Amino acid sequence: MPPSPPAISHILLKMQNVERSRRSGDGNRTLVRESRHWHDVFWSAIFVIHMICLGFVLVVLGLNRFRKSDRLNIDRYTQGFLENRKGLTENYWPLYAVAGGIGTFIGWTWSLLLGSYASEMMKVSVHILTTYLAVVSVLCFWCKQFFWGGAFAIGAVLQFLYVISVIDRLPFTMLVLQKAVKLVWSLPKVMVVAHGFMVIMLLWMGLWSFGAAGVVASSMGDGGRWWLLVVLSVSLFWTGAVLCNTVHVIVSGMVFLVLFHGGREEASSLPPNSLMESLRYAVTTSFGSICYGSLFTAAIRTLRWEIRGFRSKIGGNECLLCCVDFLFQLVETLVRFFNKYAYVQIAVYGKGFNRSARDAWELFQSTGVESLVAYDCSGAVLLMGTIFGGLVTGTCVGVWAWIRFSDRVIMVGSTAMLMGMVLVGLAMVVVESAVTSIYICFGEDPLLIQRWDADFFNHLSEMLHRRLQHRSSRHVLTAPA
To answer: Whole-model pTM?
Structure first.
């Protein structure tokens, strides 16, 4: 239940007292960390085994059609799917190489432009995606790919409706994103580490695309090829999410330290080797938690955005509102255990994923910051930029595939789009990490934000007060007489 209007004035005071137990006797701040233990080891083992097994499968699939059809005599096991068509891995592998190059270029360019033109780039992300989805839909219909044309058309409509539903939130969202960009660009070494992970992802994509090209070139029918590509795509999505969230943990830990030390970005103000420690924890003791959370958080978060936007535009249809409210409560329950703010708790305190997610959500609920988190659309805006980058990558590769192999356009273009989304997402995640750290710091101790940027603190406090008032008044209006 939202706080009553008289209680709203006490929220900020309560937030200011949250960290009081973390002050030493002389009044100085002390960051209390739990001892670093290995968490969610089972999921890290599953991820590593999956990578090893998949790597072997990718090599086999690629080699089977490399320079010679059915080099490993695999076709005898796919007699039910054979079309007796010949193709070679090297016919399609260059297409995926171009996809990796375009995705990396867009990711790095986007990251550089964010540093100088943050507001403009975010506005481009919001407004251009609907148009681009519509254009891709028309291209698909023109190529007589009616299923994909309809899918992109529906995506364009949903994107347009979502933007309309959150248009009043965009000024506040842009402010938060600008401050987040300011934070991460004050940490150049963190940006270097993030770009290093993009190179690692690109190297893995070299092997992944070798196997995917072998699948596209195989003599199996479209049904068999599509099933294999779906399995490979799910694996690539999980791998990309794990690397993104590893960067998320590293960046969150560093941003939290910067804010904790008064917003001073100089290396002398931070503990020595703090970046290397954050990196070491992310790839060792916390890696299992990252693998575990990467399976669920992205899907649940996206579903939550869509339901919130749809729920705000239902109006007086009580039957539909009841159904949507049921879904909303179900998703809210899942968000309690799977949310992106868990990664900040993992980075700072070394907790397991579920406990981190629960603690972060309880912190937001107890201080009222959850109302700000729900109002902010920064994650959705960054996702729009990621999808746009993926669409540009997929379109460029799809056009080349249409010129050379007209019957493989959608197959190659869709997998190339996924590659582009993963690479651009790695560039975007540094900003999202800063956003999550800002909210966690504001929940734990608002003075951390005030010391860093007093004007921004005033904006957050004012918006928090307005959102809590809005929730309280809505609760009063909907309460039974």
So the answer is: 0.82
